[in-house]
Amino acid sequence: MISKNMYVKALLFISFIAGSACSSTDKVQQQQVRLEPKQDLLAMADSNFQDAAAQYKVMMERLPQDQFPKTYHEERDKLETSGSDWWCSGFYPGTLLYLYEETKDEALYEGALRMMQVLEKEQFNTSTHDLGFMMYCSFGNLNRLRPKPAYEQILLNSAKSLSTRFDPKVGCIRSWNSSPNDFIVIIDNMMNLELLFWATRTTGDSSFYNIAVTHANTTMENHFRPDFSTYHVINYNPATGAVQEKKTAQGYADESAWARGQAWGFYGYTLMFRETKDSIYLDQAREIADFMLNHPNLPEDKIPYWDFNAPDIPDALRDASAAAIIASALLELSTYVETEEASSYFSAAETILQHLSADTYKAAPGTNGGFILKHGVGHHPAGTEIDVPLTYADYYFIEALQRYKNYKRK
Predict the structure, then answer these.
(1) Where does CATH 1.50.10.10 sit in the chain?
(2) Active site residue 278
(3) Is 188 an active-site residue?
(4) 240-294 tens-digit pLDDT
(5) Rounded Cα–Cα distance for residues 301 and 307 (Å)
(6) CATH code for the part of the protein at 34-63+258-410
(7) Catalytic residue among 105, 130, 307, 319, which?
(8) H runs (alpha helix) in 223-304
């Protein structure tokens, strides 16, 4: 028989445990409350949207008909452009759509629509792996904002075209076209998988999903070093699927950590977790994030050097494009992890956005050829697009600001 004294003690113990649990929950909730956008940074984001919209109207006026912006050369006051088949063609209309979404300025929407009429034919382009960049950043956003069966069909055709580059023997989507003895895959290709996941969700056809997962698994196995930095390029034997070569074409050296390559991989595995809910991808994204954020060569403002191992650090060029991609992915990743870890990622993203919004990186009105950000680095070893504005820097900067404005823990 339980005595009255023992009964009272048991009740007190249960109350203590319950109170402790509630206290712990309250602490977590308090931490989560603190993990909210700051009012001054929200005001900064809204100001950036307005400034960016004005900048892109400047660019709209300068663009030749049927041409897409690539970069701007200040010393010659020259806007460099491309046709719709260039891998960056989707970023300009995609940014216009993001800005339309924030400002409700119909001129931006009409500008995007005009460019996508030029871009539309690329849905049948089977010669590139970049159809995710080209078509999902443009038509994916358009279909999200104003859905139409015609836009769905364009995206579905794009996913089919991308799928033709998948080789089950290698387990990857081919990136660069090369000799018959090579099968080249670059880390950037992780970004194009989002289009395939959309296709499965829309049609119910799991073949797109299976290609994306297989590609991600093969890339995770072969692209990453033990410290979770990534090579840029893996060359597979097309006959056997074996790895023939590992290198870093756009970075400082084969064994260096090219900043934008790390950013592509980080964003790619974050979206892999979003689409599959498989924790293996969440762990991969966390490891890549920790590699970058804890790297001794990451500056205090968290705008990375163009390569984490560039030989002339601290005088090496920074890469605003890598910073923008990282900020956007950090905000998403912070919604998938526990509060303490989330706070670290969220804070790092805030730091990046604050510095990208300052005069050092954000262009003054009417300057920079209409681009929003300065100081991007395209292909340093080749001597192209060095310390210039880049369309993908603008795209992911605006995306990150939008994610910050709409931030909510999952």
Answers:
(1) 34-63+258-410
(2) no
(3) yes
(4) 999 999 999 999 999 999 999 999 999 999 999 999 999 999 999 999 999 999 9
(5) 16
(6) 1.50.10.10
(7) 130
(8) 259-276, 279-293
